[in-house]
Write the structure tokens for this entry.
Amino acid sequence: MVLIDFSTAAQEEINKRRQSLIKPINEQEAYVLAELREGYADLHRGTAALKAYLDATVDLVADRDAVLNQLGVLDDQQKIIKSATKLSDDAVDALETVDDVENGIDDFLETMEDIKKVINKLKKEED
């Protein structure tokens, strides 16, 4: 009987000690999980705000392109961009392929004059 009483008392003390040691761990776990949930919620709100902004931007660009297309300037804008890109590439090519600095400057100036002519031509087409 003494052994059973001792065993029961010892088991109760072990359980109390175990609970006292586990309680701070459980509290810390609950705190960490709450912080993670809060961080995830913040991340989710930020992602939603960014998605809404990007959606609005896409809609704005689509509306702008539709208006420009109705005005007939979208094609002109694309032509200007293509012409400017080609002229820029030509200017770079002229500078890269030059053996002599003086010839390179002359080629570059000629390319710049061509660019001015194209810009003036595009301005006249707009009017």
Summary: The helical segments are 2-71, 74-96, 101-126. Residues 100 and 106 are 10 Å apart (CA to CA). The chain has a mean pLDDT of 84.
